[in-house]
Design a protein that fits this description.
globular, mainly alpha
Length: 264
């Protein structure tokens, strides 16, 4: 676990350095245009993969990079289970917006905007940031090691905390919330990212294929290209994800019980 701990520390340091050093300089010193800043932020999101590949022989001794990725994507997957993982992630956000629209008495459509980029650009930016940049590290490398040591529930919580607090620097430099709103915003980040880890872990435990982590991550990120909400959305989303965590824990326990009974 020493290698895992060092990986997490290195990934934190590299990411925070890239955000403050590269993005900070590009914005404050060179005054780069928004599209360049968006591209640079995508590059920063690749820090988990950069660290993993740069220190691969130390973090994954006895394996080649080809073997690592063959194992990561080697599990089976079905169209039904992949669609279920994606729809669960999408519906959580959509239902939260719907509930918010009922509470605030606004039209559901008023919370959405096409944003600054065409649809194809938003899709490209979304798929080339966290989904492809982070998942090799967080779900390809970290998840199996934590699951092996701690089991499903505790490993999912630890993954969520590691992943959430890795984003700490963004909460303060890339957030629209200040003052008291930072409290529910940070709590929401921790709860929701932990919930996403539960979703990913649930499907990847069954299928052991990194495609689920990439798909869930993409589905979560993509909607945020168009979403215009206030802090109350994050409060609703957090409550919903706590419910999702509970259902997944119940479902995982039931599946494990059935598996154990079958193999007695």
């Amino acid at each position: 676990m020493k290698a895992l701990r060092n990986y997490v520390i290195a990934t934190y340091l590299v990411f925070w350095f890239m955000v403050l050093g590269l993005c900070g300089s590009a914005s404050m010193v060179f005054h780069c245009p928004p599209v360049f800043m968006r591209i640079l932020s995508n590059v920063c999101a690749w820090s988990p993969t950069i660290v993993l590949l740069a220190g691969f022989k130390y973090f994954v001794p006895g394996k080649s990079i080809r073997e690592f990725y063959r194992k990561a994507f080697g599990g089976d997957f079905t169209s039904f289970s992949l669609a279920a993982a994606c729809l669960l992630t999408l519906f959580a956000t959509l239902i939260s917006v719907f509930i918010l629209s009922l509470i605030e008495g606004r039209a559901f459509s008023s919370y959405w905007s096409l944003g600054s980029y065409p649809l194809w650009a938003s899709f490209l930016f979304s798929i080339t940031t966290g989904p492809t940049g982070e998942e090799s590290g967080w779900r390809g490398y970290v998840r199996p090691l934590l699951n092996e040591k701690y089991g499903f529930f505790k490993a999912s919580v630890i993954q969520g905390l590691i992943w959430a607090f890795w984003h700490t620097i963004l909460w303060f430099v890339d957030s629209d919330f200040f003052g008291w709103q930072m409290i529910p915003y940070v709590l929401s980040n921790v709860i929701v990212m932990t919930g996403l880890c539960f979703i990913m872990n649930f499907f990847m435990k069954k299928h052991d294929n990194l495609i689920y982590g990439i798909a869930v991550h993409f589905c979560f990120n993509f909607l945020y290209c168009f979403l215009k909400v206030d802090i109350f959305f994050y409060i609703i989303l957090s409550i919903l994800y706590l419910g999702i965590i509970g259902v997944i824990c119940w479902r995982n326990k039931a599946d494990y019980g059935n598996y154990s009974a079958f193999h007695r």
